[in-house]
């Protein structure tokens, strides 16, 4: 570094040094700005992020101008001949360009790594000298000591923790070198400064004992015991207790190690040259608070409760297993004073072979300083020696990217003093069955994903383009690897807008292209492929063909239809895919794709399977849903007009639904998949199945939002029209008209009913004409035109009678009775409605009985007979609830509230109207506002 070079010091107060002399930065904000730029040395930092860090949520109106002023001040301090340090303007931000060595924190970390490497090779004097040199760079007890920004404080905490680790390692190396007396005073001061850091107390006890001061070593233990008991209410950790016992019995194994030149070939590792193999923690780690808490619980588990403590972090490729494990391991490293072992087992490495247990054990035994001559040649011998070496130690073992239990089992310590953390794409159910704690990772939620992007893209674009950021989060479906790839692309290409990146991610055929990377370890296709290639041929085929399923999740029965096999075989294949985390099982018996894995599955299907294979799989799936749904709809409403379906194709096994209750449960569980299948059928040209499946969903959809139904029936009507089947078109038109009517679109509903009526007249379909007239009557009633409504209901009755359609006749009688009630003739209304109820009861039509009970309740209410009215309304409610008919239930709650209010029970009326309003709101129904007006009038 030249004599006039710029140097940045953060190991203590933030300083800028020019030519060896501090350059004054008296104001706090410019010092903090320098610290923020140093956090991202040689990387662009956005204006918005800098302003947020400098002033928080309430920046001054002049923030941008003030920021430019601070940058100008720093640039003036950085001016110098021949030095390449400079602050450059970038699009919406700045970048501080300098050599890494110009920052004391970089030099500290470099020296610390070099010192640790020497310690690993038992070169204690040299290693301790480098560690001392690294610690000499510190100018105070805390890094970034006078910087105020949150991001700076986060980095400061990491550096401060690293400093303490280096102090411990340095003192341990000096004790190992055989000179304990020189370090004891420092250890006494450090245990006073950091009283609950057990690693320092352990070194103090060892140092005192090694110096021949056994009684003082035992007294140090008593001091620690009292301190932990008073301050935290806990005991010292098992390794400290074990060291105490060994000092009490004057264990010769605690003597300082003999220099390596004397003890060549000895198998016993040094007790103080502890391995520190953890890789660097991920910067800006985000979320996972629940999972971190679960891992923290392992630290307080009673040692005597079980054998070795093991946790398995599992999840699909790119879900962040390694990031979580390494982050937590660093966070608790001080709880494992005998060291941390780490190995990437490469179980699903896209470019390498998995590490064998023999290779892994050799790696760990070398880290524990086992001499080559003492290394057993067989796997069992290596595993036994490994367990022996860890038996009296508290070590954290991190086994990353494990393939299966066979790869992991020989690497597990034998005692509860150590803890093993395993990450894998497989579920490792065998490990969990033997007592391991299972932590299955899902994607980040939207809030954490948003924070992830904000921290990884420091130029403020996520805040400046919130809609684009939200679309990126949606496309990545919470997958941290995908989010990281997008963030890296955005950071390296500050000229790219997030809107453009989001658009590429939402183009289905380009989604994985937008997440491609030259590095196979982070290229999403390559990462996924390393899981896919491990599948059996049958499960790989099912994985590909499942991409034809349009719903959010799938059952074994539906998967069997896709694959063309039995449900039991499909269940086994789904379990295999779930074990490999290519599918998830969000609820028992229902399996789902991560969105990006679905895209990968579809790509594979497009290249491996023929168009005929995919079409056949789609057709089998639609036939499975159609025949199951049709049978279910007939159980729910046997009086509904039937439609003709083709026979069940060979190889398709519809679900055997026993009764109406089981049918409604099936519809409730499969609702999202069924509605998606209707649209899927239309998109792929299966028009007959589209309208037929939609028709079977009428009773199920009646419980959902009418807006959704409107879209559904429009799709089905267009499909029916394409088939040329005018009878089918007329049926579906009426359902679309009903949805429009319920949404208050009476003119559109009227026009649709006119077309349905015309089609039925051309076909001489009397029942279809009657249905249209009856629905016309309901429309007239909604518009307050009672005479026209009654006329339409009488026309419907005549046509139903001519066709011998008994449930239709009953519904028409109820319609006439309702019209009389609306015109004020309540006695005549009762006569018609009672006749309707008798007919409906005789044929077992519960849907009609519910509507007619509501009409009878209304007539009694208007006659002033409130107790009878309430009884009929409650009967209607019970029927509607049993049928899952939400809209009917809501309307009856309104009427029940009216009767209760008229009877003087205001509190009951309020409860009924609130229930009605809530249901109408869920359905998107136009009557919700009228109910709220009733509630407002009660205030």
TrEMBL record:
SMART domains per the UniProt record, alphabetical: BTAD, TPR, Trans_reg_C
Pfam family name, one: BTAD
Gene3D superfamilies the UniProt entry points to: P-loop containing nucleotide triphosphate hydrolases (3.40.50.300), Tetratricopeptide repeat domain (1.25.40.10), Winged helix-like DNA-binding domain superfamily/Winged helix DNA-binding domain (1.10.10.10)
Transcription is among the record's keywords: yes
InterPro entries, per the entry: AfsR-DnrI-RedD_regulator (IPR051677), BTAD (IPR005158), OmpR/PhoB-type_DNA-bd (IPR001867), P-loop_NTPase (IPR027417), Sig_transdc_resp-reg_C-effctor (IPR016032), TPR-like_helical_dom_sf (IPR011990), TPR_rpt (IPR019734), WH-like_DNA-bd_sf (IPR036388)
UniProt cross-references to CDD domains, sorted A to Z: BTAD
Keyword annotations: DNA-binding, Transcription, Transcription regulation
Span of domain OmpR/PhoB-type: 1-98
Parts forming coiled coils: none
UniProt DNA-binding region: 1-98
Recorded family membership: Belongs to the AfsR/DnrI/RedD regulatory family.
Classification via PANTHER family: TRANSCRIPTIONAL REGULATOR REDD, TRANSCRIPTIONAL REGULATOR REDD-RELATED
Protein name, per record: Tetratricopeptide repeat protein
Species of provenance: Glycomyces niveus
């Amino acid at each position: 570094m030249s004599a006039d070079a710029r140097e940045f010091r953060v190991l203590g107060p933030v300083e800028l040094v020019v030519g060896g002399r501090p350059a004054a930065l008296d104001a706090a904000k410019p010092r903090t700005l320098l610290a923020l730029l140093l956090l991202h040395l040689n990387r662009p930092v956005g204006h918005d992020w800098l302003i947020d860090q400098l002033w928080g949520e309430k920046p001054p109106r002049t923030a941008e101008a003030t920021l430019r002023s601070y940058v100008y001040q720093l640039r003036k301090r950085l001016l110098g001949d021949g030095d390449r340090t400079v602050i450059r303007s970038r699009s919406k931000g700045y970048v501080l360009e300098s050599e890494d060595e110009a920052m004391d924190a970089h030099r500290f970390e470099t020296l610390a790594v070099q010192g640790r490497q020497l310690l690993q090779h038992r070169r204690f004097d040299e290693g301790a000298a480098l560690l001392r040199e690294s610690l000499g760079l510190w100018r105070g007890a805390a890094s970034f000591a006078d910087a105020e920004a949150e991001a700076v404080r986060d980095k400061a905490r990491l550096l401060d923790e690293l400093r303490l680790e280096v102090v411990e390692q340095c003192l341990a190396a000096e004790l190992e070198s055989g000179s304990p007396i020189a370090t004891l005073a420092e250890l006494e001061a450090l245990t006073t400064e950091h009283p609950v850091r057990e690693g320092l107390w352990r070194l103090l006890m060892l140092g005192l004992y090694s110096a021949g001061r056994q009684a003082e070593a035992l007294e140090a233990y008593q001091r620690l015991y009292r301190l932990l008991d008073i301050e935290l209410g806990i005991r010292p950790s098992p390794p400290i207790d074990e060291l105490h016992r060994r000092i009490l019995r004057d264990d010769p194994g605690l003597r300082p190690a003999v220099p390596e030149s004397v003890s060549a070939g000895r198998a016993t590792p040094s007790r103080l040259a502890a391995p520190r193999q953890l890789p660097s923690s991920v910067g800006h780690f985000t979320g996972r608070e629940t999972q971190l808490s679960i891992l923290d619980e392992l630290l307080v588990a009673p040692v005597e409760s079980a054998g070795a403590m093991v946790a398995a972090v599992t999840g699909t490729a790119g879900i962040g297993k390694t990031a979580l494990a390494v982050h937590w391991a660093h966070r608790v490293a001080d709880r494992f004073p005998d060291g941390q072992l780490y190995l990437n087992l490469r179980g699903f490495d896209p470019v390498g072979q998995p590490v064998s247990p023999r290779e892994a054990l050799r790696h760990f035994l070398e880290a524990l300083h086992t001499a080559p001559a003492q290394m057993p040649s067989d796997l069992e011998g290596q595993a036994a020696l490994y367990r022996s070496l860890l038996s009296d130690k508290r070590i954290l073992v991190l086994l990353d990217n494990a393939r299966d239990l066979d790869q992991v089992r020989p690497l597990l310590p034998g005692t509860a003093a150590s803890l093993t953390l395993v990450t894998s794409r497989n579920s490792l159910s065998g490990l969990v069955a033997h007592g391991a704690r299972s932590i299955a990772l899902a994607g980040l939620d939207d809030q954490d994903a948003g924070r992830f992007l904000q921290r990884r893209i420091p130029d403020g674009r996520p805040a400046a383009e919130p809609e684009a950021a939200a679309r990126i989060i949606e496309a990545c479906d919470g997958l941290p690897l995908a989010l990281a790839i997008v963030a890296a692309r955005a950071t390296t290409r500050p000229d790219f807008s997030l809107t453009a990146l989001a658009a590429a991610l939402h183009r289905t055929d380009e989604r994985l292209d937008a997440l491609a990377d030259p590095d196979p370890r982070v290229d999403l296709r390559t990462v996924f492929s390393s899981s896919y290639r491990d599948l059996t041929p049958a499960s790989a085929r099912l994985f590909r063909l499942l991409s034809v399923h349009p719903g959010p999740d799938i059952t074994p029965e539906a998967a069997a239809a896709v694959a063309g096999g039995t449900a039991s075989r499909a269940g086994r294949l789904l379990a295999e895919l779930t074990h490999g985390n290519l599918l998830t099982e969000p609820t028992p018996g229902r399996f789902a794709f991560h969105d990006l894995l679905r895209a990968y599955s579809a790509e594979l299907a497009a290249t491996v399977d023929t168009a005929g294979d995919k079409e056949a799989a789609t057709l089998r799936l639609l036939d499975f849903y159609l025949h199951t749904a049709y049978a279910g709809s007939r159980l729910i409403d046997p009086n509904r007009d039937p439609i003709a379906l083709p026979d069940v194709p060979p190889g398709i096994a519809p679900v055997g639904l026993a009764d109406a209750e089981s049918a409604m449960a099936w519809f409730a569980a499969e609702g999202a998949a069924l509605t998606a299948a209707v649209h899927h059928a239309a998109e792929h040209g299966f028009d007959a199945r589209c309208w037929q499946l939609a028709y079977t969903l009428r009773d199920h959809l009646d419980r959902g939002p009418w807006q959704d139904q409107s879209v559904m029936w429009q799709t089905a009507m267009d499909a029916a029209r394409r088939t040329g089947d005018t009878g089918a078109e007329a049926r579906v038109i009426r359902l679309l008209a009903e949805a429009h009517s319920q949404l208050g679109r009476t003119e559109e509903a009227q026009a649709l009913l006119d077309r349905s009526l015309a089609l039925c007249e051309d076909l001489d379909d009397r029942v279809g004409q009657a249905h249209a007239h009856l629905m016309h009557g309901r429309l007239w009633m909604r518009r307050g035109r009672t005479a026209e409504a009654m006329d339409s209901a009488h026309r419907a009755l005549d046509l139903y009678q001519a066709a011998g359609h008994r449930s239709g006749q009953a519904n028409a009688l109820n319609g006439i009775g309702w019209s009389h009630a609306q015109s004020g003739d309540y006695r005549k209304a009762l006569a018609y409605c009672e006749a309707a109820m008798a007919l409906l009861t005789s044929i077992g039509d519960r849907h009609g009985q519910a509507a007619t009970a509501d009409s009878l309740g209304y007539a009694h209410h208007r006659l002033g007979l409130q107790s009878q009215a309430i009884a009929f309304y409650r009967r209607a409610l019970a029927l509607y609830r049993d049928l899952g008919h939400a809209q009917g239930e809501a309307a009856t709650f309104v009427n029940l509230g009216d009767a209760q209010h008229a009877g003087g029970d205001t509190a009951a009326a309020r409860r009924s109207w609130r229930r009605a309003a809530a249901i109408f709101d869920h359905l998107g129904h136009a009557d919700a506002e009228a109910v709220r007006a009733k509630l407002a009038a009660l205030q």
